[in-house]
Amino acid sequence: MKKILTILTILFTWTQVSNAQQDTHYTGYMFNNLVINPAYAGSRGHLSALAYYRHQWANIPTAPRDISISVHSPFRKKVGLGIYIENDRIGVHNRLSAFASYSYRFDFLNGELSAGLQGGILNYTSNLNDVENLPDIGDAVFANRQNRLLPNFGFGLLYFTQKSYIGFSVPHLLNNNSEFVETEEFQRRHYFLGAGTVLPLNTTDFKLRPTILIKSIPAEAPISIDLSLSFIFKNTFLAGLAHRFGDSFSIFTEFYFNEKLRAGYAYDFPLKKVATAVGSHEFFIGYDFIPQDDEKIISPRFF
Predict the structure, then answer these.
(1) Is residue 30 classed exposed, middle or buried when 0-12, 13-18 and 19+ CB atoms within 10 A define those classes?
(2) Distance CA 88, CA 64 (A)
(3) pLDDT in tens for each of the 303 residues of the chain?
(4) Residue 86: which residues within 8 A CB-CB, separation 6 or more?
(5) Which residues of 228-263 are buried (b: 16+ CB within 10 A; e: fewer)?
(6) How far is CA 64 from the centre of its chain?
(7) Strand pairing of 199-201 and 203-217?
(8) Spatial contact of 32 and 52, defined as CB atoms under 8 Å apart
(9) What's the CA angle centered on 218, arms 193 and 119, to 5 degrees?
(10) Hey, how many other C-beta atoms are within 10 angstroms of the C-beta on 14?
């Protein structure tokens, strides 16, 4: 088992440090949009908070574990403000991000067009001297504790109505270099294009919600495509299936306890075998601070 953990640690190190630091890709991206797109800030129409946890490859101690907390709200009439904090731990590596978002909304067609900016920092730490049973591979990157503080900023666009959305974003514009490996880029630019809608069925109890998310990291990784399809029952319970092409199949669910409180769960079935790894778990809980006299809330927002 120690040999497996050592091999995985080396693999994660070269993947995350030598090649590029990848942004966390959540199966429940449609529940956690502020992490992907700063234009989402304020789009729910009231103060909204969400906590999200992802445990990848649940039976491997050194596998990725991610937690994010996001809060956003409209400010005045057309402005949205938001903040998210995300911690990503992979074995002896830890990445802590903190970003603030600003959005401005315009009336457009039958909905609103939001343009967003974000800025913040990423702190990356590797406690490589904590790795046990590491073979002597003669590379200084495995020698000791290393730390790197990286500023970054991004932008996004989001068109949305009460029932649909389409968005494009580049959360981190800078291709930051790491002092760990001088000749390699450490943090690559990610491009996201996503859309979703809620469709009524021939019944008052059920709705259908398809979504898509396309992610591109030019010259670094193949284009990633996520498709999901879920059923909504009485605006209270949601259950669906998702597929990340070439990577995983997923099931997910969301439950609205009331118009303010919601929680959900997702599970990934990986298509690629990594050592003894099994699936990945995601949990989230969200709360919308809706005033009692807010007449704009007709039904829950499912994105």
Answers:
(1) buried
(2) 7
(3) 444 444 444 444 444 444 444 677 788 888 989 999 999 999 988 999 999 999 887 667 667 789 999 999 999 889 999 999 999 887 777 889 999 999 999 999 889 999 999 999 988 887 766 555 555 555 555 556 678 888 999 999 999 998 899 999 999 998 876 555 443 445 678 999 999 999 988 888 899 999 999 999 887 778 899 999 999 999 899 999 999 998 889 999 999 999 899 999 999 888 876 655 678 899 999 999 988 766 555 456 677
(4) 24, 35, 66, 67, 68, 69, 95, 96, 97, 98
(5) bebebeeeeebebebbbeebbebbbebebeeeeebb
(6) 13
(7) antiparallel
(8) yes
(9) 60
(10) 14
CA–CA gap between residue 237 and residue 261 (Å, rounded): 12
All domains in the chain, ordered by first residue? 2-289 (2.40.160.40)
Tokens, residue 124: 């990356």
- Which residue, chain included where needed, has tokens 């790197």? 148
Asked if 32 contacts 70 with a C-beta cutoff of 8 angstroms, the reply is yes
Q: What is the residue type of 290?
A: I
Q: What is the pTM of this model?
A: 0.83
Q: Fill in the amino acid letter for 117.
A: L
- Two tokens at 176? 């930051």
Q: Dump strand ranges (E) for the chain.
A: 47-55, 65-75, 79-90, 93-108, 111-127, 145-160, 164-170, 176-177, 185-187, 191-197, 199-201, 203-217, 221-233, 237-244, 248-256, 261-270, 280-289
Nearest to 259 by CA among 219, 229, 294, 299: 299
What are the backbone angles phi and psi of residue 228, rounded to the nearest 5°?
-140, 155
Helix (H, G, I), strand (E, B) or coil at 130: helix
Nearest-5° angle of CA 237, CA 285, CA 215?
90
